[in-house]
From TrEMBL:
It comes from the Eukaryota. It comes from Paramuricea clavata (Red gorgonian). The lineage of its organism: Eukaryota, Metazoa, Cnidaria, Anthozoa, Octocorallia. Residues 9-18 have a biased composition (Polar residues). This is Kelch diablo. Pfam families: BACK, BTB, Kelch_1, Kelch_KLHDC2_KLHL20_DRC7. Residues 1-22 are annotated as: Disordered.
Length: 588
């Protein structure tokens, strides 16, 4: 038996062992109780040796507690300063409610939950009194309270008072919620400095670049007299390469031409011309060489005839809503963020006049005005805000007709016809013109000829023919050249030869052959590469995806499609990454 050294009752060995176990060396309850007792002493005025006065209200406290929690108070009470021996310390720069919360925190570590405005005062007091833990808590409170309505005020405030942590959290919140934030009442009050930081960020979470431009325009209109002079500089941060040429010409240029200041008009139009690709001021509908905002993914919409979204960077296939009216040998193009699927061979064996439009944001299809002339194996592309359907065939004949669709009016008109009928031609839009390449004539002759359409003159002219005749080839424009891949060279037999056309020199040259001869394949330009999907040769259908590196003139097989298919269309587009999870993964 062991005796208590203070002469109290004996302690048994078992209780002694429990008292000195490792777990009990630190007594949290003791520490908490001590803090609670000191806080109670403060409230009742026991043993207090200093009074803090703020705006006529006084708070009793203990110097030792204040000095232990804050280096500000430690210096105040220990360094040879006039306040060292004073019983009352005046602090009128901190309001009474805030001082009350500060002292509660100093004594207990607890904090009565203030609102966002109170948290700002708490942050400033903690900064002044050198209480880093309290500053951190104040930032947490303000971050939790962020909303589309208050975040811009918080951003400006955090910049003014140099709160890097709060600024970082708030800035990220605005980037993630830019669409709703840009429509708030405070957005037009945002200083140009902060707006510039937002517009310059690739991390803006927006569905498309139009949202960014419209936000800039609203900001300028908020104080038109002061801000149009800043518009030209901020406009340079808009990613014009990720806006359609149609939107730039019909919306942005009209806005610019309405500006009252001629010098500003000239400066902005000069910025726009950096993306001009011809003297006709035709703007590219999409430039895949420039990175979009990081929350927008490069996606290739693949119709085979089921519809998939292919993400080249991650090699993912996502299943999308199927085409409502099944057809083969239809043609597709991307137009203002929508996929248009035109014509084709219907189940009854006749050429179809059906036109259907896919909206990736809703994962749904809509019917559009029917083609005036039913067709299949036509070539489709977009130019100057119109969708063109070139050539094609019926059951009995091939066409040289050209049908043009106006999305604003949802109607079709016929424009100048080709010089010769073509089915299975390729159609490429670049430099303000359309190029109809190759195809097959009514007598089954394979064509090497190329025709160029000028919308300004509404005429087709012959240009230098390809090196070899081909039909149903894959063609795309990238890095200043038109690339033509494979195609049919004789009934049932495909090319693996490829060639490139320099539109400036009007000259064709051969490039490396692709690894697999294929025709009827889909093609999409991606950064500095061409992706070629599916197709067939001599009755063999493919599911492989070949990639051509434009800079290295080299091919490699990089992936497989979810299924083997002969007729494939590919439409490159940019899509908000927030939309991608709604589509189920497809198994390959």
């Amino acid at each position: 038996m062991t005796m208590d050294v203070r002469g109290n009752s004996p302690i048994s060995p078992s209780s002694e062992n429990r008292a000195f176990t490792r777990e009990n060396l630190g007594d949290i309850d003791y520490t908490s109780q001590l803090a609670a007792t000191m806080a109670e002493f403060r409230k009742t005025g026991q043993l207090c040796d200093v009074i803090i006065s703020t705006e006529g209200r006084t708070f009793q406290a203990h110097k030792i507690v204040l000095a232990a929690s804050s280096s500000f108070f430690q210096s105040l009470f220990t360094v040879d300063m006039s306040e060292r021996n004073k019983q009352t310390i005046k602090m009128d720069n901190i309001d009474p409610p805030t001082m009350s919360r500060v002292l509660d925190y100093v004594y207990t570590g607890a904090l009565t939950y203030p609102n966002s405005a109170d948290a700002r005062e708490l942050y400033l007091a903690a900064d002044y009194l050198i209480l880093p833990g309290l500053k951190h808590k104040a930032v947490e409170i303000m971050v939790e309270a962020l909303s589309a309505e208050n975040c811009l005020r918080t951003l400006v405030w955090s910049h003014k008072f140099s709160s890097r942590a709060l600024f970082t959290h708030t800035f990220r919140f605005i980037l993630d919620n830019f669409n709703s934030v840009s429509r708030s009442a405070d957005f037009v009050k945002l200083p140009a400095r902060e707006l510039k930081l937002l517009l310059a960020s690739n991390n803006l979470r927006v569905a498309d670049e139009e949202i960014v431009y419209e936000a800039l325009k609203r900001w300028c209109e908020g104080k038109a007299d002061e801000r149009w002079s800043q518009f030209a500089e901020l406009f340079k941060l808009i990613k014009l390469e990720h806006l359609s040429g149609y939107y730039i010409e019909t919306t942005i240029q009209e806005d610019v031409l309405a500006l009252p200041d001629e010098e500003i008009r000239f400066e902005i139009l000069e910025t726009i011309t950096e993306y001009t690709v011809s003297e006709n001021s035709e703007l590219p509908t999409i430039n895949l060489l420039q990175p979009p905002r990081r929350h927008i993914a490069m996606v290739t919409c693949v119709l085979i005839p089921d519809v998939y979204a292919y993400i080249p960077t991650s090699k993912e296939w996502l299943e999308m809503a199927p085409v409502p009216t099944p057809r083969i040998s239809s043609s597709s193009a991307i137009f203002n963020g929508l996929v248009y699927n035109v014509g084709g061979l219907a189940g009854c064996g006749d050429s179809s006049n059906v036109v259907e439009c896919f909206d990736p944001s809703a994962n749904s299809w809509l019917s559009k005005a029917s083609l005036p002339v039913p067709t299949r194996a036509a070539a489709v592309n977009v130019l100057d805000g119109f969708l063109y359907v070139v050539g094609g065939r019926s059951n009995s004949a091939r066409f040289n007709i050209v049908q043009r669709y106006d999305p604003c009016k949802d109607n079709w008109t016929l424009v100048t016809s080709l010089h010769e009928e073509r089915s299975g031609a390729s159609l490429v839009s670049c430099h303000g013109n359309l190029y109809a390449i190759g195809g097959r004539k009514d007598d089954n002759t394979f064509l090497s000829s190329v025709e160029c359409y000028s919308p300004a003159q509404n005429t087709w002219s012959l240009t230098t023919p390809m090196c070899v005749a081909r039909a149903s080839s894959a063609a795309a424009y990238i890095r200043g050249k038109i690339y033509v891949i494979g195609g049919v060279r004789s009934p049932g037999v495909s090319h693996n030869s490829c060639e490139a056309y320099d539109t400036t020199l009007d000259q064709w040259s051969t490039i490396s052959s692709n690894l697999v001869p294929r025709s009827y394949a889909g093609i999409a330009a991606f950064e500095t590469s061409l992706l070629v999907c599916g197709g067939e040769d001599s009755g063999n259908f493919y599911d492989t995806v070949e990639c051509y590196d434009v800079e290295k003139d080299r091919w490699e097989i990089v992936d497989k499609m979810p299924r083997v298919e002969k007729f494939v269309d590919c439409c490159p587009m940019f899509m908000s990454k927030d939309l991608l999870p709604i589509f189920p993964s497809a198994k390959c």
